[in-house]
Design goal:
alpha/beta; 5-stranded parallel sheet; two-stranded antiparallel sheet; 7 helices; about 20% strand; binds iron/sulfur cluster
């Protein structure tokens, strides 16, 4: 029976998803073994129950926090995909400064604003946390895939192993040809 696979991005640049798309025709191998039931590239429905969840990005806001708790409940195997998910990476650079200073630097004091910019304030926007968190500081992560982004070969290796009920071993992945 085919597995259910979903992907999502939280606080990330979507580069990890672009690398996923770089598996090119190997997506057909994935499609033989899994139905891709949710992906931010094509839909916005609630996160369903799945066998495997690939999660790009870190936890930056109330919304991300609630989302990753929900994903953890829905997914048998949760994969932290890429350095933002694993250790916050680029999104965590603001952790060195108070959030108010970061907002002021971006929206008030940037040269294009000349000290007169307005901070974004709309109910539809994310409510940022003071600190950005990696996934494993909020939920249990089953598989960690580092890289910014991880290579397409690495992503395919991880997916292929999980879809065949094997736990990927990234220490050997580079020696394998997929
Ligand atoms: Fe983008 Fe790199 Fe973060 Fe992936 S790990 S979301 S490519 S910044």
């Amino acid at each position: 029976m085919k597995k259910k696979l979903a992907t999502v991005w939280l606080g990330g640049c979507s580069g990890c998803h672009m690398s996923l798309l770089d598996i090119d025709e190997r997506i057909l191998e994935v499609a033989k073994l899994a139905d891709i039931v949710k992906c931010p590239i094509v839909d916005g429905k609630p996160f369903p129950e799945v066998d495997i969840a690939l999660v790009e990005g870190s936890v930056t806001s109330d919304e991300h926090y609630e989302e990753i708790l929900h994903i953890r409940k829905q997914a048998k195997v949760l994969v932290a995909l890429g350095d933002c998910a694993v250790m916050t990476n680029i999104t965590g650079m603001r952790n060195y400064f108070p959030l108010q200073d970061v907002m002021a630097a971006a929206y008030t004091h940037s040269p294009s604003n000349d000290g007169e910019g307005m901070w974004p304030n709309h109910e539809a926007l994310l409510k940022l946390h003071g600190k950005v968190l990696p996934l494993q500081s909020v939920v249990t992560v089953d598989v960690v895939v580092p890289g910014c982004p991880p290579s397409a070969d690495t992503i395919f290796y991880v997916l292929y192993e999980l879809l065949n009920d094997r736990m990927p071993d990234l220490s050997t992945a580079q020696k394998l040809k997929y």
